[in-house]
Each structure stands twice: as C-alpha cells, then as structure tokens.
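Why does residue order matter? Because the sequence determines the fold. Keep that principle in mind as you read this record.
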Amino acid sequence: MDAIRFACLFVAFLPGAVVETDENLDKGREALQKKDYDAAIARFTDAIQSNPQNASAYSFRAYAYLQKKDVDKALADLTEAIRLNPNDIASYGNRSMIYLLKRDFDKAIEDLGEIIRLDPQNAARYVNRSMVYLQKKDFDKAIEDLTDAIRLEPDSPVAYANRGFIYEARKEYDKAIDDYAQLIRIAPKDARGYVSRGRVLLDKPDIDAAIKDFNEAIRLDPKNVWAYSHRGCAYQIKRNPDKAIADFSEAIRLNPRDAYSLRGRGMELVRKQSFDKAIADLSAAIRLSPRDEESYVQRASAYWGKQAYDKALDDFSHALRLNPKDQRAYHGRARLFVSRREFDKAADDYSTAIKLDPKNTLLALERGGLYLARKEYGRALTDFGNVIAQKPQAIDGYEARAAVYEAKKDYAKAIEDLDQVIRLKPKDPWKHVHRASLYAAKQDYARAIEDYDAAIKLDAK
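Structure:
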C-alpha cells in the first residue's frame, strides 16, 4: 500500500512579540526579515551579552540558527530560552522539531505535550504530536491525539486523513472508510479523498466501489497519477488487462517516475507474454525503487518466460535478500530449481515457502509431486494428506495421493482415493478409466469392466 502524504504542520516557529526593549533585538529581527541570518545572529548575541536573562534573544537566535541548519546551536539556545521562560510555545515547538529531526521521539513528544498544556484548545497541536507517535509506531496514542483534534475541530481534513491512514494500515477498513468519507464531506472537490477511500475499498475488497471512487477522482482531477495507478490495480484484480494497462500507461505518461505503475504494467505484460516489454518496465521500476522485491519477482517471471533462467534465478534470489519472508519468491525459485533438476534446492525452497504460508495447498501439492518423482513416498503421502485435510472437497489431493499408492502398488488405497475423486467429479470419464486400470492391476476384472462401461456411457466417442 502506498503511503499517504501526511500534511506536515512542522515548520520553524518565528518567536512572537517581545516584552523586552532592546535595540539589538529590534535590529536582529529586522535582519531576520531580510533573511540576513548571520547579521541577525550577531545582533541577538549582543542582546544576550547585554542581558543574559533575555529569553527572547535566545529564542530568536535559535530561529536564525535553524535557518542556517545549525541545529545543535539552535537546540542549546532553545533549551536556555525555555529555562528562562517555561511558557514559550515557539521555543518548545522549534525544539520539538529538532528532536524529531534527531529521531529523539520521546523528547519531541515531551515538548509537544508542553505546548498542548499551554494551548489545549488548538487542534493542530494534537495533530503534530500524533505524527511523532506515528514515527514511534505508537498507533493507539496517535489515534487518541487525532480524535482529540477532531473533537476540537470537527472539520479538520488533516486529522481525518491521518487517522484514516492509521486505520487503513491496521486493516480496520470500515473505520478508515468512515474517516475518508468525512474527508470527502469536508472537501468534496478534492480528488485525494476519493483516492484514499478507493484504496481502502481495494484492500477490503470491494473492487467495483473502488473503481467508482477512482472514476470520481479522475473526473475531479484528470492529472491525478494515483487515481489512474490504483484504478489500474483494480482492473488488474478484475482480470481486465487492457484497461489495467491503459490506466498504468496514463499514470506513467503523467509521471514517468511512477514505479508503482511501471511495476503494474510490467506484471500485466508478463501475463500477456510480452516479456521484453515487461522486462523494460520492471527494470525501470527497479531503478526507481530498488528495494521493492515485487518488481524483482515479476521480472524473474519474465526472464523465465524468455528462458533466461540464470537471470530469473538472480532476480528471485535478490527478492529474497530484500525480503526473506516472501513466500512467492521461494515458490518461484523452487519451480526454477525443479526445471533445472536441482531437486534438493527445490525441496528446501518449497519447505521454506510452506513454513511461511502453511495454508497454501498448491505449495504442498508441488512439493509432494517432487517427493513422488524422487520416490520419497512417505513424504509425498504426508504432503498430499495435508492438502486433503485442508481441502477435503478438492480432487487434486486425492488424485495425487492415489498416484503415490499406485506407485507403491497399494492398489486398494489408490482405489479408495479415486472413489473420492469420482464422488466429487462423477461425470469425468477419465476418472473411471483410471480406476478401471487399478482394478485390472488388482485382477478385479469385473469392476474394471464396470468402470470402462461407465466411461463409455459418459463419452461414447
């Protein structure tokens, strides 16, 4: 999921009106207005030397240091300003910003708490502190602050947008949809609210409703890249490749550096077996977002389609270095190892993928098939038994296990599994033919003839 761009309220606070009468202070403030920060610092330094208790001089000099990106000197001045004047909101604000830059989140939160103590009815103060809680991944506290912000300012688009994003990240989709609906109510002509709600509907999933929101976003803002890219994803899910490619292409036209859309279009081109074009898109996506393992997995599939097996193997392996828990990369690499007859490596990758996704019966079926080919019948039976336990109404597990019993010449058990296959798919003549061959192997010719007769009735040709 792409990250929403939080409206950031953190900017350097210019200290407000001062009580002290000091020519150096006045001249320093004039220099600040002219953006002559060195002159301002010199004047504020003179003011401090004249009166070391002048909190405003420290606060203003800190502001000048901040404009020069000299955060350590600014931090020292702000700390002194707060010591001299513990009720100085601007100094707390600027110091909290420095702590945030230094990733000292606890101290930033402490200063923002002081601002809230001094100005408890200002919704923006709560929004600011919520953003630091977000940095700490303390989502509960962030939600508390954003809820307070909404209580104080019921039409705060920033608070609804950010709280909706947190709910979205926590997969609390209904709450996220409610918050984005409020955002749309407050700003009905802003496409971003529809894009955000549509993105949640994609995840929920309610694909048709998502497309409706993206359509509205595009109507309001025909140049909204995210609306096209997310609608492309929706069409991808609906298996409408032409519309998906059209939307991804429009997003790329609007923003040639949109790695998300380049990856999406590349995925669709892989499905269309346009491997060269897919590789071009996915390579561009990787250049723009080199830590996105999904692009490597998809490019590996394209290389595999071109029979460039070494490059495919490199991409699967690179994806796993980026994300050692990507079961799809293990799955893809396992299949590649099978095609290269590197069965031990394939079995290892299948086993890792199954540990990561134990409910994925396809993985168990494929690993079981590998074990069957290697005549490791006990392991194959375990895998196919697990498939049947998870999906007792699917025929694949029964057919595969029957094949193991047949290889072991345990025809009675093989027939029991084929009984289940025929129960689930009674009109398939080839299932009867298969069972007939097993009866014949058991020398139970009467039942074999019955199955052959049943197969002929189902398909006289």
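The CA atoms of residues 121 and 152 lie 7 Å apart.
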